[in-house]
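Subject: Sanity check before I submit

Could someone independently write out the structure tokens for this chain? I want to compare against mine line by line before I put it in a report. The sequence has 308 residues.
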Amino acid sequence: MRRRVISARDLVKTYGDFNAVDGISFDVPAGESFGLLGPNGAGKSTTMRMIGGVTQRTSGHLDIMGLDPEHQGPEVRAHLGVVPQQDNLDEELRVRDNLLVYGRYFGLPRAYLEQRADELLEFAQLEDKAKARVDSLSGGMKRRLTIARSLINEPKILLLDEPTTGLDPQARHVLWDRLFRLKEQGVTLVLTTHYMDEAEQLCDRLIVVDKGKIMAEGSPAALIREHSSREVLEVRFGTDRNAAVVPRLEGVGERVEALPDRILVYADDGEAALEQIRNRGLHPLTSLVRRASLEDVFLRLTGRSLID
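---
Independent answer below. Compare away.
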């Protein structure tokens, strides 16, 4: 069994009367890609800040590689790479200089940093941008540079807070590839996301978080098997008609969920469910059969969509 590099027990963070994190517990073994999946405001970023030692916990126990981040913050941060939700690169510096200057905060020797910066620029596919100013980079390039910078001290754990928010699909997939490579090198990844496809692609295991509490835990595939059907049929009858149609769908598939803009029918065979609906004299304006996803898991557990 792989050793645990992160262990949280009954972790609580309170702001006044508000529990941002409300008694969560989890373990992360070395080399795992572990995710916190949930909507904005679920407590994911607060949990990450407690792991990084920049936010003090209200109560509970937190162990990072045998260290308490609250009392041994510098020692913990020496083993961590942190990719914040918003890029905080130095726009005035050139791309390579961002890596060199950041590395000096760790007291790393210049000769080491020169070599490491070149390695990381190659890893981030930014070699040809080494002398460019940061403000000339695209959003995807800035994100890759932020990740490269977080690796300057060869961290054992990489914390990524919403790593691909705001990126176009192509830039997201390039970033996913870089993260896969890190995982192959044995780096432990801990990431927050509200993108279901990202969690399914990147996470070996995850916790579904809502309102500061853990709703479910497991691999993406196991969570989908446990909380959803194999397929989902999405039908639309028009915004004004969807609610009226729902009672007429009773008995179709395993269950039916009505959302403001569409109706979800959970079934092992989505096409067969659609045929049932048509046989009842109902003709949706649009229909789509897809495989079940973590979005459906979250909807089942909380009664609402991941992105409200």
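---
OP: Matches mine. For the report I'm noting this point. The chain has two domains: 4-219, 229-291.
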